[in-house]
Automatic annotation (TrEMBL):
Metal-binding is among the record's keywords: no
EC number of this enzyme: 3.5.4.5
InterPro entries assigned: CMP_dCMP_dom, Cyt/Deoxycyt_deaminase, Cytidine_deaminase-like
Family: Belongs to the cytidine and deoxycytidylate deaminase family.
Record flagged with keyword Hydrolase: yes
UniProt name for this protein: Cytidine deaminase
Keyword entries, A-Z: Hydrolase
Domain (CMP/dCMP-type deaminase): residue spans on this chain: 9-131
SUPFAM superfamilies: Cytidine deaminase-like (SSF53927)
Pfam families reported for this sequence: dCMP_cyt_deam_1
Lineage: Bacteria, Bacillati, Actinomycetota, Actinomycetes, Propionibacteriales
The species this protein was found in: Nocardioides deserti
GO molecular function: cytidine deaminase activity
Source organism superkingdom: Bacteria
Length: 139
């Protein structure tokens, strides 16, 4: 998958990988399967799907599975990300997942949103991250 500029990047191919992940979702309670896919700086693609639980609070979002696969396959920095619903429509990650994406992609991560491609700085403005923790330790 080409990692050129946002205009050159194969967003449709990445969305199709998110749709494939969504088809593996386990969503018997909400009936709302979600899939996510991202490209890692080294060119790998990682994906995840939501996995529900009868105790809703321990449900895993698709982004959780994606980040787990990222680290299980060698880590790295996410560069491009997309998340879809059961119809393949691009959706926004929840707040918790935006934090996960910030931690693993940083400010430059490009996110396909319902309003087009946006950098993480717009998806999670004024994000809290590792630099904030370091500043706190210095106090």
């Amino acid at each position: 998958m080409s990692q050129g500029t946002s205009e050159e990047f194969d967003w449709e191919g990445l969305r199709e990988q998110a749709v494939a992940a969504m088809r593996r979702a386990y969503a018997p309670y909400s009936g709302y399967p979600v899939g996510a896919a991202a490209v890692v700086q080294d060119g790998r693609t990682v994906a995840g799907c939501n996995v529900e639980n009868a105790g809703y609070g321990v449900t895993l979002c698709a982004e959780c599975g994606l980040v787990s696969q990222l680290h299980m396959t060698g880590g790295g920095l996410l560069t491009h990300f997309v998340c879809v619903d059961s119809g393949g429509t691009v959706i926004m990650p929840c707040g918790r997942c935006r934090q996960l994406l910030w931690e693993n992609g940083g400010a430059d991560l490009q996110v396909m949103t319902p309003l087009g491609v946006r950098p993480m700085t717009e998806v999670l403005p004024q994000a809290f991250g590792p630099d904030d923790l370091a500043r706190g330790e210095q106090s």
